[in-house]
Write a structure and sequence with these properties.
506 residues, 6-stranded mixed β-sheet, 13 helices, 17 strands, 16% strand
């Protein structure tokens, strides 16, 4: 075969070759245009991801393509309305996911859905400037923040359409601490809709979620209301060194419950799936052995929600080995991650004779009209969210984890403060002077508890105590408790509110 003479091409060969070339060219043009769209319009490719700030859609997780397109369409509509003033707000987070990413794919798309709901609401309402939502991807590990923050600073100096604030910031870790420090240095007001680590405090950083110390107080309130067992506890904590959330929560749980539940001498480490590789994730052999051997009745979980199903699966393999009262797995967080209520997890919990007790920022039961402690502002959110859910694929139980509602609140806090600032600046004048980042910061720094400035959000009615009070954590924020499977109690748990000094509404 190798010694045969190479055959010359005939007319048919050349025709076939021409067709193949044309197909390749056409594919190259299509693929090339997609490649050109990947990281353009203000974005650059860094380590295989689009990084930067843009008002347009870009290449990210496939599941969020339609959501990015909708945000880009809303931005284009705002820019096309001649003579209508508008400002910019940035959504700074990860738009790509992976096995060890800071956000799961579901978290990303639900965060986007909530942000889109707030954007549509801001631009549908009368009065005040319109809003463009700038998309600010910082990488799946949230560590490519430096060029993004520099660009945001430039946009804040734009006098025609200034950037007035930032929201997003999805995780408490070393890289986000560095980013927030730089944002505060550049005096850019920033909102953390899902931040819980109590050490995440910076001069220009406002948190609409409860901090871990307030979560712990709400958890204490629950345990006092529903006492059970012999207080034989186990602290189950993520060993990742860069996870500020797990570290702060671990310290808080030890300080509040260490003595009563023996947490200083009864603990177990595991490697979580979020963050850099520090060992094989999801190994809970030590924890299960300790629970069985020590007849533990209360597990204090200081890790990420996505790792909890693995622990429950390992626990179910041992059955109800605690040999005492029902095991309670206590966790804190934004909501009840849908993977925690799947049929398999429910079977595993029943087999292990265990219940999840989630002290959270959002209660999935609030979706239903007439539910207990339902926020006054949730219907406005649901009006927009229901439309978005019908137009996009958001996965099972898209409200349960609280990300959509929380990201809605985060952006809404900024847009409502911006519109109040705009009204005050132009009151009695025939002007349309736009607020800047500094004017917006001044508005956000005013005390709003029991005033017209309180946010009627999807996660509750709450405000801020002003200046450095409570380190810019939300005040009067409801902290509901969600149990799964839901047990029967002989009395109702009263709703805990953050930093309540008796002056919180309702």
């Amino acid at each position: 075969m190798f010694g045969s003479r190479i055959r010359e091409w005939g007319p048919l060969d050349w025709c076939v070759a021409a067709v193949v070339v044309l197909a390749l060219v056409a594919g190259g043009i299509y693929g090339g245009s997609k490649l050109l769209r990947t990281c353009d319009n203000g974005l650059s490719e860094i380590d295989g991801e689009c990084i930067g700030v843009t008002a347009q859609a870009f290449e990210a997780d496939d599941a969020i393509t339609s959501l990015l397109d909708s945000i880009a369409e809303e931005n284009d509509q705002v820019a096309s309305e001649s003579g209508t003033p508008y400002v910019r707000v940035a959504l700074m987070m990860s738009f790509t996911s992976g096995d060890t990413s800071a956000m799961t794919g579901d978290m990303i798309r639900r965060a986007l859905a909530g942000s889109l709901a707030a954007l549509k609401e801001a631009n549908a309402g009368a009065g005040g400037p319109q809003v463009q939502l700038m998309l600010a991807p910082v990488g799946r590990q949230l560590d490519q923040w430096d060029p993004v923050v520099k660009k945001l600073d430039q946009l804040a100096d734009d006098t025609d359409h200034p950037l007035v604030g930032v929201t997003g910031i999805p995780s408490s870790q070393t890289s986000t601490r560095q980013a927030l420090d730089e944002l505060s240095t550049r005096k850019i007001p920033t909102v953390g809709p899902v931040i819980n680590a109590s050490s995440m405090n910076f001069p220009y950083f406002f948190k609409t979620s409860p901090d871990d110390k307030e979560f712990a107080k709400a958890l204490q309130h629950y345990l006092d209301t529903y006492p059970q067992g012999r207080k034989k506890g186990l602290l189950l904590l993520d060993r990742h060194t860069g996870d500020v959330y797990s570290k702060d929560l671990t310290d808080t749980l030890k300080n509040r419950f260490g003595e009563d539940y023996g947490l200083t001498t009864h603990s177990s480490l595991f490697t979580g799936s979020s963050g850099s590789d520090e060992g094989e994730p999801g190994i809970f052999v030590d924890a299960v052995n300790k629970i069985c051997n020590e007849s533990t009745d209360t597990v204090f979980y200081a890790g990420r929600d996505q790792d909890l199903p693995g622990f429950i699966d390992a626990l179910s393999d041992a059955g109800s080995c605690n040999q005492g009262s029902r095991l309670r797995i206590l966790k804190t967080g934004i909501g009840l991650e849908p993977t925690l209520t799947e049929e398999k997890v429910e079977r595993d919990l029943k087999k292990a004779k265990a219940t999840i007790v989630d002290v959270s920022s959002f209660d999935p039961r609030w979706e239903k009209a007439g539910s207990a402690d339902r926020p006054a502002g949730i219907d406005d959110f649901l009006d927009h969210f229901d439309e978005i859910e019908s137009a996009h694929t958001l996965g099972d139980k898209p409200l349960d984890d609280g990300y959509a509602a929380s990201y809605y609140d985060g952006l809404r806090l900024l847009t409502e403060a911006m519109k109040r600032t705009f009204a005050d600046m132009n009151k009695g004048k025939n002007t349309e002077q736009l607020p800047t980042r500094q004017e917006l910061y001044t508005t956000l720094s005013q005390p709003t508890v029991n005033s017209a400035g309180m946010l009627q959000g999807a996660t509750g009615t709450y405000g801020f105590a002003g200046q450095d009070t409570n380190r810019r954590w939300s005040t009067c924020k409801p902290v509901p408790v969600v149990e799964f499977p839901e047990p029967r109690h002989d009395r109702k748990l009263s709703l805990y509110r953050t930093y309540d000094k008796g002056d919180c509404p309702g």
